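Final report, Chapter 2: Outcomes

The project's central promise was a pipeline that accepts a single protein chain and returns its three-dimensional structure in a standardized token representation, suitable for archiving and comparison. That pipeline is now operational. To close this chapter, we reproduce one record exactly as it appears in the project archive, with the input sequence first and the structure output second.
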Amino acid sequence: MISTWSEWKRYPRPGRGENIEAPITPGLYEVRYAGTGALHSFEAVDNVAQALAQLAVGSKSWFGRRDTAKLPDLEYRTCATSSKADAKAAAQRMIGRRETYMSGAA
């Protein structure tokens, strides 16, 4: 069973004491560039909060030490599911709908 998507939230910046707000259950996450809405990453995972915390840009995770001026401005949303299998099925449906939309728009 799939729940609804959360609202878009700004991705935490290192050094500001901000936290990721995400379920610790299986589900989906989507990360996009805030300025353009372009997709950064999308995945079905066992633990949404852990996956978002370990999300890497380049070779470093979000919470490693780095130059914050070079970080992209990202936002994320999450969707909890009852199992990883449900998350994968929902992800495949979403990918299929996007491909259908894009092929019709071409």
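Archive annotation: The beta strands are 9-10, 27-33, 39-45, 56-57, 60-61, 74-80.
This record, like all others produced under the grant, will remain available to the consortium after the project formally closes.
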